[in-house]
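Ex. 9. Protein: Small ribosomal subunit protein bS20.
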Amino acid sequence: MANMKSAIKRIRVNEKSRVANQTVKSNMRTNIKRVESLISENNVEEAQAALKVAVKKIDKAVQKGVIHKNNGTRQKARLTKKVNELGA
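Predicted structure tokens for Small ribosomal subunit protein bS20:
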């Protein structure tokens, strides 16, 4: 256990950040899974609508620093590619 005052505060701050990041990341993953499930059901219109929401959630996670910019870009590209292949 930490003894120094700054280390104790750091533990508190890290825990608070972890919980906030966990919420953002969980929300993002849920929306990604929703898009993927709609793709597997061959539901084009709803998949495109869900993709817009998922992209917003991914962008928000990148903006907050929860995931890396390249990770967010890769996820958006892969989802978009799947939805576009479904529509074609």
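Check your answer against this statement. The chain has three helices and no strands.
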